[in-house]
Amino acid sequence: MEAIRKMETGKVLRALMCLFSLAFLIGAVLAPDLPEIFTGFGRICTLPAQLTKDYFKPELGSISGSLLNYFLLSAVCCALMFLPGAKITGGTVLAYFLTVGFASYGMNLLNIIPLMLGVAVYSLIKKQPFGKNLNFFMFSTAIAPLITHVLFYYPVVGDTPHLTFVGVLLALIVGVVFGCAMPALCAHSPGFHKGYDLYNAGPAAGFLCFLIYAVLYKTAGVEAPPITADLGDGNWMFVNIFCIVTFGLCVVFGVMLGGAKDYGKLFTDSGYKSDFTAKYSTGANIMNVGIYGLFIVLYYNLIGAKFTGPTMGAIFCMLCCCCNGATPLNVFPIMIGYVIMGLLNRAGVTAFAVNAQAIVVGLCFASGLAPISGEYGIVAGIVAGMLHYCLVTSVPAIHGGFNLYNGGFTAGIVCFLFVPILEHYFKSKRQRRGEG
After folding, report:
1. Which of 94, 397, 409, 434 is a good FRET partner for 1, with 20 to 30 A between their CA atoms?
2. Which DSSP letter does residue 222 get?
3. Cβ partners under 8 Å of residue 263, min gap 6
């Protein structure tokens, strides 16, 4: 254990992500529908992936096939972390879990290939090693559902996938365009949300997907597929056992690495423009992975969420910011905002209950607004959560449901509308301390 303590934080985090990949493989083998693992994985790779498709549902995939997809996607990401130029930071942890989280709704091993090619082309243009742009590759997978659609179902939507030369060519073109544009747009995203949206790639992916969607459908005069959810009943026991065991082990491992010594400081960090891997010990970061993960699972149990593929995906997507600014303390007010709006549903004021699938997934990305509550306090965080609830189900119409970062895009819009008002009328904690 002493040898691990002396290792660079980046190497320990890379090892942790590799262990998560192994956990996904073990989960696939232990899944209740193991005989369906390969046929389910085949359905996941070829059926429409537009928001929101539940890969746990037998008709769309299988639990074992989804966990195999988790393993394969995470293994690709981990393998790329060993490339020359790859630097493992809190941003890498964010990109990894954000990518892996969509393995149970929207992303698969096939529809990320054109996007990987796009970032490879970008690396050649910039004369940089691919490893240096690893995070951009993982963020570019935000439009994976669009790749599936142009590959198998464009311009005519049918019941069965049909692979054509035009479809392959179009998928490659979209992948290269998106992969080359994302790095530039991500660099400008902080100016849009001023650092208050932890899902920095959300606005970049949202606006770019909006443009591509408009060109492929509205401009070309092609009828766009309807945005419809296809959900199953989920599996409460499997998802809870898998998450509690893996997150619990993270807590134990973090404590063994001495993380308890400075976890209190990490826990109370505002999360604003914070890379926890640079500010706190490796043990504290790993503890936050576990504690934050268990906190998310507890919340979803308390509100009575169905543990479908999208719910499990939301847990890991939400976990992605655990080394980049999110803690149970600064995310809790966002949750309260969502709960308030969900309770208003009982009075007929709002359209969605707090445990509706769209709201369960929406809360995942609303957590990216954690720096607002961290900097401006609990009330500001609650209001931010309420605003996100109001917008998140309307935003898919802008991009046709093809942007997996829908909630992160929504968080950016909330920041664009809300942060200037906060800055104009209130002082942040940093300003009150005389730091800015």
Report:
1. 94
2. P
3. 254, 280, 283, 284, 287, 288, 291
